[in-house]
């Protein structure tokens, strides 16, 4: 192999006292790192190719393997850090844009970790969720301006709603960007736990059609897989304008991933790049967006909520307000930690804003304008656990979307190399040898377990706050306190400082 | 009642951990992979084999057939149906190592043991003790399951 200035990022430590030479590591690594050498008569590892996905580590039956960051030292320099230098080597070699998978991993503040929840003491006693019911039911969709009660309860037409048993949904991940088995796992888990999944912009594969009544179907600029039948088969429609991981950038599924199944599902020729351009070519104003929203409502006979997904960017509140006025029944705001199969590294790391600030700004603005009640807010982009969910709801969200967390439940080890199509965990790949690594039965069980576990924890946290229904927490920022935040950040979050 | 292990080839990932754990469970250290491979001088052969061709892979062990070729072909009657356990067993004392059964088995599920006195070895459902067999218990993708069926006629 030609000399490259890029050095290996990881070092593989094999404990030969433990290694039984079963070659499981050799068979499991899709990057061809481990191999049996006939001359040495032992196992050798080509570390340069290792992406640190932990597949070999987890599958080794004797725990003989460890993968660590390469100890190779770069001269200590506060300005030129190792990744900065390595990226230049790579660009000097290839002349190309740097690509990455998954979300922004720069050390920007995580505001969830600067927010603390309340708990009741003495007055307004806390609730034990094991003895008393705590309600997590959430409805996503437009709420009517006025409600009339008659002898039969609420009278008159009610706008279409999604009914969620837990205020969490699986965010948009198309077949092609993730494997069919991974998508099937999430779809089944959504049905089992009474939530929804989002099929992304790739159309609906026949094998996930049985789960379509729990699916949010996406309409992106590429219009892949979109037909009246597709729109009608989902529970809700989401117009994707932007994505947190790459605001202002369109989607691109490389031709190698467009095999026969993906090509049929997306309705595009075999082996062609599936490019969803950055702009929708029929949307240049809020009025244009309104036209698309109402075309979709018309096509589905006003029976399904239609939402708009935007990335969290600088003037997100104004954009959100416009989208609500254009007729969106729900708004999805995706923060800059949102994941993706592939994004240009500079875009992912430098564009957009944290979801916490975006959510607070949007919720405040919609309230000021008196239209918050007409729309549901769903936030996404780096929701890691049930406490993040509770904080998001207290900040004003109706529900959250999880993507990365759901994939981690299926086995993803965050190697961030999804764009290579060689995902060793069978998730971000369409290679049939790798996709069978996700057994949909196992995947569905794991993803459903995650939702159930979070539901228990959310109930416990609500109980501790003395709240018996998630609806009562929504936008109740008095249940939050900020810690380690400046006055401007507290002002945007509209949260008091801890101790106040 | 009869029993056997079936493999779902849609999710068998060809890792061969079933072989590793089969070896272990028939070794001197049935619950310790490391010791089985490092300390058992006469490590057993796996009674399950993984077949691979392109993207297809599946593991195959004795089918515990309803009309077994092996019991019919065995010269000494060492291979017999154990009616109680519902599986085909080898009675090692009676095996003379003629390998007629190895030739007769259409699945290649029988192989010679290592060691001085070679005898036929094959899947015994880990002793048929009722415990989940090692390959089923340790298949990381749940590709294997025990099938129990009632004999016809
Ligand atoms: S999987 Fe573990 S025991 Fe098997 S060859 Fe690899 S390092 Fe050795
Ligand atoms: S790429 Fe993954 S499987 Fe391959 S050696 Fe590295 S950690 Fe192990
Ligand atoms: S989905 Fe696969 S390739 Fe992407 S980060 Fe996770 S393990 Fe790595
Ligand atoms: S352990 Fe399971 S997945 Fe691995 S080769 Fe055996 S049957 Fe296949």
UniProtKB/TrEMBL annotation, chain A:
The keyword Iron-sulfur applies. The keyword Metal-binding applies. Signal peptide: none annotated. It comes from Syntrophothermus lipocalidus (strain DSM 12680 / TGB-C1). [4Fe-4S] cluster 2 binds at residues 29, 50, 53, 56. Keywords: 4Fe-4S, Amino-acid biosynthesis, Glutamate biosynthesis, Iron, Iron-sulfur, Metal-binding, Oxidoreductase. One of its GO terms (molecular function) is 4 iron, 4 sulfur cluster binding. Belongs to the glutamate synthase family. [4Fe-4S] cluster 1 binds at residues 19, 22, 25, 60. It is an enzyme of class 1 (oxidoreductase). Its EC number is 1.4.1.13. This is glutamate synthase (NADPH). The lineage of its organism: Bacteria, Bacillati, Bacillota, Clostridia, Eubacteriales.
Automatic annotation (TrEMBL), chain B:
This is 4Fe-4S ferredoxin iron-sulfur binding domain protein. Pfam families: Fer4_11, Fer4_4. Signal peptide: none annotated. Keywords: 4Fe-4S, Electron transport, Iron, Iron-sulfur, Metal-binding, Repeat, Transport. It comes from Syntrophothermus lipocalidus (strain DSM 12680 / TGB-C1). SUPFAM superfamilies: 4Fe-4S ferredoxins. One of its GO terms (molecular function) is 4 iron, 4 sulfur cluster binding. Residues 3-32, 86-115 form the 4Fe-4S ferredoxin-type domain.
């Amino acid at each position: 192999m030609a000399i490259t200035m890029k050095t290996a990022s990881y070092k593989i430590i094999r404990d030969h006292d433990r290694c039984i030479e079963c070659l499981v590591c050799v068979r499991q690594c899709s990057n061809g790192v481990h191999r049996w050498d006939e001359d040495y008569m032992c196992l050798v590892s080509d570390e340069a190719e290792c992406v640190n996905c932990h597949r070999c580590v987890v599958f080794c039956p004797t725990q003989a393997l460890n993968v660590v960051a390469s100890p190779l030292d770069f001269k200590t320099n506060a300005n030129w850090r190792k990744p900065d230098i390595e990226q230049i080597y790579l660009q000097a070699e290839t002349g190309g844009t740097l690509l990455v998978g998954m979300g922004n991993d720069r050390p920007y503040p995580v505001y969830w970790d600067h927010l603390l929840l309340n708990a009741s003491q003495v007055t307004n006693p806390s609730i034990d969720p094991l003895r008393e019911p705590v309600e997590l039911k959430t409805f996503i969709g437009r709420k009517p301006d006025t409600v009339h009660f008659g002898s039969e309860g609420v009278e008159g037409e009610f706008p279409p709603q999604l009914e969620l048993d837990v205020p969490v949904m699986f965010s948009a991940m198309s077949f092609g960007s993730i494997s069919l088995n991974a998508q099937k796992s999430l779809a089944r888990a959504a049905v089992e736990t009474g939530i929804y999944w989002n099929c992304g912009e790739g159309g609906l594969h026949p094998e996930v059609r049985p789960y379509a009544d729990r699916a949010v179907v996406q309409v992106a600029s590429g219009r892949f897989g979109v037909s009246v039948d597709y729109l009608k088969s989902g529970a809700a429609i989401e117009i994707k304008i932007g994505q947190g991981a790459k605001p202002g950038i369109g989607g691109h599924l490389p031709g190698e991933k467009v095999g026969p199944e993906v090509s049929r599902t997306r309705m595009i020729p075999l082996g062609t790049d599936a490019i969803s351009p950055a702009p929708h070519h029929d949307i240049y104003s809020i009025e244009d967006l309104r036209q698309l929203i109402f075309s979709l409502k018309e096509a589905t006979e006003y029976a399904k909520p239609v939402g708009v997904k935007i990335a969290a960017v600088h003037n997100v509140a104004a954009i959100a307000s416009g989208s609500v006025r254009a007729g969106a029944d729900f708004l999805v705001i995706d923060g800059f930690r949102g994941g993706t199969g592939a994004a240009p590294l500079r875009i992912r790391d430098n564009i957009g804003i944290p979801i916490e600030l975006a959510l607070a700004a949007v919720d405040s603005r919609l309230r000021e304008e008196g239209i918050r009640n007409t729309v549901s807010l769903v936030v996404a982009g780096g929701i890691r656990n049930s406490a993040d969910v509770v904080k998001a709801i207290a900040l004003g969200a109706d529900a959250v979307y999880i993507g990365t967390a759901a994939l981690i439940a299926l086995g993803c080890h965050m190697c961030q190399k999804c764009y290579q199509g060689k995902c060793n965990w069978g998730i971000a790949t369409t290679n049939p040898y790798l996709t069978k690594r996700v057994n949909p039965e196992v995947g569905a069980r794991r993803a459903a377990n995650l939702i159930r576990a979070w539901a228990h924890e959310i109930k416990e946290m609500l109980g501790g706050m003395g709240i018996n229904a998630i609806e009562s927490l929504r936008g109740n920022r008095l249940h939050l306190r900020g810690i380690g935040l400046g006055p401007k950040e507290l002002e945007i979050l509209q949260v008091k400082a801890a101790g106040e | 009642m009869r029993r056997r292990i079936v493999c779902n080839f849609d999710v068998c990932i060809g890792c061969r951990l079933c072989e590793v754990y089969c070896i272990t469970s028939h070794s001197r250290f049935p619950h310790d992979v490391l010791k089985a491979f490092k300390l058992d001088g006469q490590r057993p052969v796996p009674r399950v084999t993984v077949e691979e061709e392109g993207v297809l892979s599946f593991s195959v062990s004795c089918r515990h057939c309803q009309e077994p070729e092996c019991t019919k072909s065995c010269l000494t009657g060492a291979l017999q149906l154990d009616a109680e356990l519902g599986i085909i067993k080898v009675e090692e004392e009676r095996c003379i190592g003629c390998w007629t059964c190895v030739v007769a088995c259409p699945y290649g599920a029988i192989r010679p043991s290592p060691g001085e006195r070679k005898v036929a070895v094959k899947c015994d459902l880990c002793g048929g003790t009722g415990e989940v067999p090692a390959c089923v218990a340790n298949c990381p993708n749940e590709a294997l399951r025990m099938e129990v069926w009632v004999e016809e006629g």
